[in-house]
Amino acid sequence: MNCKECEILITRKIAGEATSAEEAFLELHLKDCAACRQEYSELAGAKALLLKDSGCQEDAGMVSKVFAGIEREENKFRQGFFPRLALRSLFAVAAVLAVVFGYDAVYSVISVSDYTKILDFAKYSFSGGSEPVVKAALLHQQASELSAGSVDYMAVASLENALYSIDKHDNVRMIAILKDIVKHKAAGSFSGGAAKVCNDVFGGGVVVEAAACCPNARRVQDEILLAIESERTQNYDYAIRIYSDISKRPGIDGYTGSLTAMLAERSAESKLAYQRATKLKGEQKLKSLVKSLDYLQVVKTAEKEGAKTRDGKFLVGVSLSKAGYGLKSALVFNELKNESENGSDGKQDKKFAAAVRMNLGVAAEKAGVRSVAANSFNEFNSSGLTSPVNLSSYGIYVKYVLEPGSRPPNIVNAASARVQLDGKEMIRVQPHGEKWSVGEAFAEVKLWKEYDTFCFDAYNPGKNVLIFDFRVRAKTGDIKGRTFKYSIGVKPGASRVAIDLREATYVNGEPVRWNCNVHEWVLKQNIFGKTPEVFYVSNFRLERTRPAALLAEAQGK
Amino acid sequence: MSQLTDKNDEDLMLLTGKGNKKAFEELVKRHTRPLQNYFYRYFRNIEDSKDYAQQVFVQIFQSAKRYRRLSKFTTWMYTVARNLYINEIARRQKVRFSPLEFAENKGTRRNMVEDAVTGTDTAHFVRKSLDALPAEFKEVLVLQVYQDLKCAEIAKLLKIPEGTVWSRLHYGLKLFKKEYEKVTGEHEL
Fold first, then answer.
1. Which one of A210, A459, B82, B164 is separated from A304 by 20 to 30 angstroms, measured CA to CA?
2. Chain B residues whose beta carbon lies within 8 Å of the beta carbon of residue A436
3. Which residue of chain A is at minimal alpha-carbon distance from B51?
4. Domains of chain A as residue ranges with CATH
5. What is the structure's pLDDT at A98?
6. Residue A251 near chain B (CB below 8 Å)
7. Could you tell me what percentage of chain B is helix, strand and coil, using 3-state DSSP and rounding each to the nearest 5?
């Protein structure tokens, strides 16, 4: 036996796999060969050293954990995967049945309880940006239509086409379809919802159009919805009319009354500006009209009288954006941007260039063109200027609009946020944890009792669903000092996280109960409780997305 | 129960495939510690190791019906575990951020537990030296020395020739020894 063969036997002996014959041969060789003896003792010593590390202790509760994990997986399969597939099929089957056999066939296939699932499915499947909101709303309306018994196959087909257009990013086609739906289906329960859908797509101007198409919208829920959307788009008179009307009805508390007073004040200011505008001409008129918040009038005036200067174009762009026409507005600002880059506007005004970029970002964001929005905001940020307008009025914070795969340079890591509702009227978001580098800049204080949903955008750069903790602490009331902790799951990519604050309601200024719920669809995304190392959050905001809840409460009294 | 404890892993797995949960429970009891330690040798985090071991068991249970007695149960189990480890490593490398938990929990109870396990004794140097080895050598050492797999099984699991396993084991041990001397030398300095 030579030393090379012995080397193999040494390894086999140390691995405990040498046969007795091999061991005998090895022993003989080692007696004569000092080098191999040295080799053997070295390797045996190495293995002995390795065995000194006994590892970690056994987890005594592993059996129960494993069975809990198995159960969770089985539930997930039953409740998650299958319904998703089933619901996809459900839509297809419903549409076909509706076309071939009419509504009765659809109704016999889909039970009422399925509509909730359909809505859940819509929420679960799409997240981030305005498009998913529209998708969810469309699916919801589809469900409502079916459940209300007023479905016709044209409506179903139109909705399907609209959804298809969203997938293809063909916003123009989608808008045309939705307009068509509003005009032709403007009756009964569908009208208010259709207005909401349209408003999500292109804002206040269409809400008015939709409202005009909806003379029969008498359901309070739809009316409040219309009022809120009108208010959001500065159509105060219309909002006031609805609120005043609703507040006179029995069973409605002072909620709408206080809003009416607030809106009336704003409306008076707006009217004053409008009166001034009628006496002016050219850009001065446009400026005054902008102050009057009648953005559609600004656009009409500009079309009639022309907006030749860059300031005039800028005002038209802002007005289009405010009126909800994101795409048109983006085109105006894009033209202004090109002019300023080419120097064809004859001026080198950095401040103006930055304002154009910021507004282009806002408009592009509204139009759902996130890549343009992100680029514009980044360009605006690099200008080093502060925002020339109140960005919060857009509901957008420029720094953190992200393209998929990108990340804001000033966020290193983020763990959790603590939201404090002070029991009276304020909400404050505080960064929590030393790694949260966004600092106090995130803190936002608002009157929270007018809102029902606490929202923020989250961006998960990983491949897996991320889970993070969200804490809400009660500052007053019976449960003062109690912290509510929620685990929230965010899918890879950009998502909108919404936390329902509907339970945090008041009677005579005093808290009656105090709770927060995370939407179910967020929680469904938990997979094995694994947390990726980093994610990004931005755009903390309060929203009034659920007037139905307030209404239900009022009606329940 | 006594009958189940007498049975080998493969029989228990076949019983699990037929819906016998007690048989699976016995399997979990037998392999919890080795599996947990397998992950611990790579991730050096007790909680993560427990979680990954749990995931492996869940996956094994879900595929129990498809199990055939073509190879040893442990080979199969470590194949599942290795795939999980590889996926996790790929994911971590892609993200490349330091775990927040680590940054935030400095000095917390959990770290104290980790320290107690880590220590500053021989075992600590052994871990440090093992972690410093190239992945292919470490993998063979972990499977042979700690997980007690035969070299033929390791070859099957890693899909490499058996001769390669022997050679990796041989040179892996030598490299480890060298590394250990380096680490302890540094410590003495």
1. A210
2. none
3. A528
4. 3-47 (no CATH), 81-269 (no CATH), 280-400 (1.25.40), 416-556 (no CATH)
5. 29
6. no
7. 80, 0, 20
